[in-house]
Amino acid sequence: MPALWHSTFFLGIVLLAISWPSLASQAGNDDLQMGTEHRTDKGTENGTTNLITTLPIVTWNWHEIQFPYLIVVWILVSWLCKLVFQLIPSLTSVIPESGLLICIGWGLGGIIYGADKVQSFRLQPFIFFFYLLPQIVLDSGYSMPNKLFFSNLGSILVYAVIGTCWNAATLGLALWGCWLGGAIGDIDTGLLQLLLFGSLIAAVDPVAVIAVFEEVHVNEVLYILVFGESLLNDGVTVVLFNVFNAFVSLGGAKIDAVEIIKGIISFFVVAVGGALVGVVFALLISLLTRCTKNIQIIEPGFIFILGYLSYLTAEMLSLSPILSCTFYGVCCQKYINANMDERSVSTVRYAMKVFANGSETIIFVFLGITAIDPSIWVWNTAFIFLTLLFIFVFRFIGVFFLTWILNQYRLVPLEFIDQVVMGYGGLRGAVAYGLVISLDEKKYKEKNMMVSTTLLVVYFTVMLQGITMKPLVKWLKVKRAAVTERTLAEKIQNRTFDHILVAIEDISGQIGHNYMRDKWNNFEERWLYWLLMTPSAKKSCDHIFNIFHRLNLKDAMSYVKEGERRGSLAFIRKETKVDVDFYKKLPSCGQQITNSELLCFLPSRWDSMPSVCLDMHEQDLKMRESEDFNAHHLLQQHLYRGKKQHRHRCSRKHLEVNKDKNEVQEIFQRTMRSRLESFKSTKIGPWDKTPSSSPPVLPVHPQLGGQAVPGQQFLHQREQDKEADRGLEEKED
Fold first, then answer.
1. Which of 37, 286, 495, 667 has CB atoms 3.0–4.6 Å from 640's, for a disulfide?
2. 288 neighbors 302 (Cβ within 8 angstroms)
3. Residue 408: helix, strand or coil by DSSP?
């Protein structure tokens, strides 16, 4: 607890320092005046410049770096806010992370308002839509489990498209009816403006719900339906918002049946066009990663650049940038992960998480800061209460109605408990706020009332529903996902069941989900793998080869462990004792492995000795004698290198990992243990007379194959070891 108060006090001091622009400006002006007292204007060949009579030691340049400095400090403050409440794990287990960030934003907003008497910092729509939102959308699309997403794509589209239109239309019409009845007072609004408000408030942002789902491990179907709906829902919401915004600009008197048809066509064109732009850029990045083998340093950068470019291109074409960036991440992840190096894949994953998590943190902190601004608050109790009531009721009605329709066609219907969780998980968040602050005050006279209502809806859903979601999931006993990995028999059974379903659909003449998936898999293996993947990546997609590769790695690890136990790996080279064909060469990366070639690598006796395929050079095997080989491994295991043998590399084109330090440390420890055991063994040599009736224990030395030697012979052997060590060091020098 003291650490929490210290961190909070530090944040307050930082905010107080950066949120006093008048003080900074005054200090900058005073310093500027002090500096100009010693300056004189003289002409030069390039124009006029300031000559100084004395050299200033330091100058105050706040106006030159004010903008980037504030950006960096705000990022630091936002991440420190996340660090503050992580000091109390019991708090984060009760209140969702997004709710805690909003609470911290309230505190920071109070500090800023108390210092300036005005809210100096606000989240602008341009910064939100072009710098913060693309990173979150790209990470969500890239992290999407493809198999689950496309297996439930029909249900996800129903909830995301039809469900979003239902929520927007019903809320707008219900508020319009209350306005006509005089329930919400005399406000300057109309049907189109209330429909626009319904479209922006329909944006679902279940960050807290997804966090609870991951912690509780709910079943996969419920997880992907909520996750997929929230991701596509944002894109559909923005498209609806733009359509109604165009209707408001056009005017109610000019809207007829033709304009309504144009609006419907525009809705589908913008949504589908944005998705197609994302698919095109996904194909482009997949082709590009085929050629980045030699430039792995900048390989991850292409993923982010083209992802952001897909977002901007869709925005430039007046299409849906959110859907474009989403389908870019969904469609490219499989191919770029196979083409890129493992280190590049890890870099992309971690960098995306850093950017997305940082953006979410900044957004929710500013959602709290925005509340401490009296100029935006226009309180209308009836409008706020009816909005909360309608979004809650119509959300449940829409989920139950659409699920009833989907269950008529689903092989495994959605249970009632899953429907309750989906209806209760409709939290509102950043997208709704970003859309409402982008409204034009000249066209929307009640903009501040909409902003106030949107903020309260976000606070209510994130706080109340986010806090009660975890107890609700546990109380309803929602079906959990299996945490343990499936056995081989279960995998074979599921695979067989999929093939049976495809065969049944083919025999009955129905073109269903399984039939389409089977056709897509055939098309992907025949054409897309050839076009978008490197030859080595195509070979790694072979399931039989992957299993064979994992078995080989497991066998190789068992051989290494056995070698460490014996003190040497020399037994592997003895072809008469190991059932391994060391001279058999694997096919190259571009060749296919047939069943007969695969069987020739398999061991003939699995019980007697595990098999392994090791890549060893034939010439090396012929040139080395057994004694030289044993001596080589003995030196490798029981000597440590000198400092001159360390290789410190620095390259601007390749990632170099220096493993010499760890190797030296391991060899040194092993050598010291071996010498300590040898020293202990000399203490109980044959000259020590003990009253025990058992024969004396002779010392053991590893170079003699574990045979016992007399004490004097062992000491002589140690002197020879030291001379050999000095000789090796002199030769290396």
1. 667
2. yes
3. coil
